[in-house]
Amino acid sequence: MTLKVYCDRMSQPSRAILIFCKMNGIEFEEITINILQGEQHTPEYKAINPMCQVPTIVDGDFTLFESHAILIYLSSKYPGVASHWYPSDLVERAKVHSVLDWHHANLRRGSVGVIVNNVMLPLNGVPSNPKAAEEAETTLEKALTVLETFWLKDGPFLAGRSQPSIADLNLVSEVMELELLSEELHDRILSPYKKVLQWVEDTKSATAPHFEEIHGVLFKTRKEFRELMAAKSGKTE
Amino acid sequence: MTLKVYCDRMSQPSRAILIFCKMNGIEFEEITINILQGEQHTPEYKAINPMCQVPTIVDGDFTLFESHAILIYLSSKYPGVASHWYPSDLVERAKVHSVLDWHHANLRRGSVGVIVNNVMLPLNGVPSNPKAAEEAETTLEKALTVLETFWLKDGPFLAGRSQPSIADLNLVSEVMELELLSEELHDRILSPYKKVLQWVEDTKSATAPHFEEIHGVLFKTRKEFRELMAAKSGKTE
């Protein structure tokens, strides 16, 4: 039975899983759950994932969610997956787990907060909360500093690795989500982090051509969002 | 060389690691980093863990932080660790990873927020922020509901398991941190969740006598905090 991947290419962990499957020749059926249209809240999807989030995989009679757990499961299940994605050496594997665990309350929290406050709420006409926006930006900048000065200090990929692991895939997908910000804000936040920017490029290259293809929807939406935001700011001038 | 565990028994993930080591006969040296006194910010500790958080382990020349990653590493490294802590079966292991990943942005985020807003800030004389306190309580209650109705629906331990895994140890330590709240708030928040309360008791029993011993400092601090809070509220009446 073909692996089913319930996902939305607008979701950063969904993209990580899609790129991973394509890179490793894992056959799968992609089932889009449009999160901007709220399809994650339908009774049908709730029966698959009661947390109402994407991604979820269904492999035969086994349903699994949480993207890190999914990437580890797929790495372990398919013998054809190259070992650099999820190293079998105990210490190297522990380093990958450490980055993935760090991600949750740092890079992901900051990134989601910045996008919600600067893109999603304004586009939905919700009054801005400058304090929340500022806190999210502080969390994100702290996380980017840790990426720049710690996780990327010993090599081109996270935790001093010479080839990408599932952690690189997941965290780069997160950084890519910042493309949804205005160009000015995006550049102001990211431009001080030279190693981070280089690592994004290195991960793109290492996962070509799948990276660009899977991010196509994000780039298209970025264009639409920026036009909408420009129109909105025009109206209020 | 003996495993070094840098920790504070007032920190929930520190307690999980200490109980795990004691349960599995892993020899270690416990080095206390007093977080209430800010010892995690000393240059000496920052050289060990630049994130300035506990716990951290040092195993020979390998330094590792993030408690989930540590528990997985220790489970994999020591052959004497009973298999229920971190199952080798691919599907069972994936379920444990899924719970651990879910933990970060849900139970942990809610629990930390509730404690910071209701205990730490008031004890430090910082004016309360009712909106932040309310949001944290909502996050915590949602997480407790998911524990009650989903993660504990199929068995006494998380993800339908008949014996505790590293996920039970970590998440129960988190729930135990709520002991620092006033008795009234603690009971109001937790009493609706009967399965959660039973699971805490089952995990305590399964890890006796180490659970009670390692939580001794928390119980002592709870008494001190409640006296301090009572004295403070007396002053303002």
Automatic annotation (TrEMBL), chains A, B:
Keyword terms: Detoxification, Transferase
CDD domains, alphabetized: GST_N_Theta (cd03050)
Biological process according to GO: toxin catabolic process
Known EC number: 2.5.1.18
Residues of the GST N-terminal domain: 1-82
GO molecular function: glutathione transferase activity
Domain GST C-terminal: residue ranges: 89-225
Reaction it catalyzes: RX + glutathione = an S-substituted glutathione + a halide anion + H(+)
Primary enzyme class: transferase
Xref: SUPFAM superfamilies: GST C-terminal domain-like, Thioredoxin-like
Family (UniProt): Belongs to the GST superfamily. Theta family.
Matching PANTHER family: GLUTATHIONE S-TRANSFERASE T1-RELATED
Protein's recorded name: glutathione transferase
Organism: Helianthus annuus (Common sunflower)
